[in-house]
Amino acid sequence: METIETVCQFRNSSYLFIPFRYNGNNAYRSLVDQLNNHTGWQLAHDKNLYMLKYVADKFDSKNPERCQCFHFVHKKAGEEALYATTPHFFQNTETRFTFLLKQIHLYCFSTGVGILAFEMQFTENDPMWIATAEYYLKKVSREKVVPLDKNGDPLVGKEATLLDLTKELTADFAKTLPLDFFFYANPSTERANTLTYLDVPEQEDYAKELYYLRRCYSEDFVYNKNPEAEQQEIYRAAREITWGISPEAAICLARPAGHESFVHDVFFKNFNQQYVFMYVFLLHQKYVLFMMLTQLGIGTYNNLEVLEEHQKRLYEFENDFVFSRVTEVPQYQNLYHRLSEAFALKAMFADVREPLAALSELRKTANERKQQERDNALDRSLFMLSLLTFFSALMDSFNFADSFFSWFCPEGAIKWIQGASMMLVFVVFVYVIKNLISSRKK
User: Fold this and answer.
1) Phi, then psi, of 144 in degrees rounded to 5
2) Parallel/antiparallel/unpaired status of strands 12-22 and 179-181
3) Quick one: what percent of the chain has pLDDT higher than 90?
4) What is the pLDDT of residue 185?
5) Structure letter (DSSP) for residue 87
C-alpha cells in the first residue's frame, strides 16, 4: 500500500464537485457570514489573473459588498489523509482505488447555488486506473470511501459516501440554513462532475485514454473510436497540453518531458487556481439553470406573478454570471467556449427562456382584463349618471315647456308640448343607452 510520502511523487490532481442550493431571505449573506465566523473554514482571496476586469471584479472577495462568489477552504485540509474506495475488480484483480484528500473547497454564489469540491491526488498515474476510480467516485451517494491508517489499512467503522462527508462538513450551516444537495436529481442517481490533471509520457496518440478519462468510464466499457466526437470533445491547447471534455468531466493531459519548467512550475499552478475557478464558474451556470427549470413546475406557465419573478431572477443571473467572453488569453477563452458547449448551456438557456415567451401574452391578457373591468365600471357609472340625467331632463323639459310656451300658446296646447318634449328626452335617453350597450359588445 502506498504511503503519503510515496504519493507525493505523482503528478496528478483531481477535483470532484458537489452542488447544493440554499433558499431564504438573505441566504447568501447569511451563509457567507457563518463561514467567515466558523472555526473550520477560511476565506481564500483568489486572484483571477487572466479574466477580464468586468468579470474578475464580480469575484473580488476583498470587496465583499460587491462580491458575487466567496471561496472558502476547510482548515483541516492540511491534515492530508489517504482514503480508499470499496474493493472493485480492476484488470482481474480486486482493487481499492486510493487517493490523498488534499483540500476541501466551498464556493458560495449569490444566486443561492453553492459548490463543494474535494481536491484529490490519486496514488496511481495510470490513465485507465484513474478513469475507473472516478467512475466509482462520481457516484457520490452510493460509493463509500474509508480513511486508511499509516499502515494502509482501512479504519473500522469510518466508511461513508462523499455525499455523507459533504453533509457532515456542512452540518453546522444546515441547522439554520437548509442545504439541498443535487436538488435537480432523483435520490441515488446523483453524479458529480470531475476535473482532472494528469501527467502522461510522450506517445503518438492519446485518443483511448481521453475517451475513458473525459467520460469517467471504467475499463468495462468498450472503447468506441469516434473521430467526429473527438473533434468536438478534444482540444489541444499547446504541444504539451491536451484537454478532453464531456458533460460530466474534463481531463487535462500534460506531457512534461522536455518542458518540466513550464508544465510543473507554471501550468500546474494555473490548473489548480485559474482553470479550477473557470470550471466552477461554468458548473455554477449549469446548476443555476437546473434550479430555474426545477422551480418552473406544472402550472407556472399561466401564473403571471411567478413568471415575472422568474424573469427578474434570470435577468440578474445573466447580468452577473453569463458572459460570452471572459478573457483575452486564447487558451482560456477557447476552453471556456468548449466547456460551455459540452454543458449545452445555450440550449438550457433556451429552455429557461421559453416560459417567458408566454409572459408577454399573459401580460396582454391581464391588461385587457383590467381594461375591460375599467370599461365595465365606467359603463355602469355612465348608465347611473344617464339615469339620473334622464329624470332631471324630464323635469326640466316639463317645466321649460310650461314656463316658456305659456306666453304665446293656449293652455290646452302646453300639455301637448310638454308631452312632446318629454318624449324627445326619452328618445335621446334610449339612444344613449343603446350606444353604451353597443360599445361593450365591441
Assistant:
1) -95, 140
2) antiparallel
3) 60
4) 94
5) P
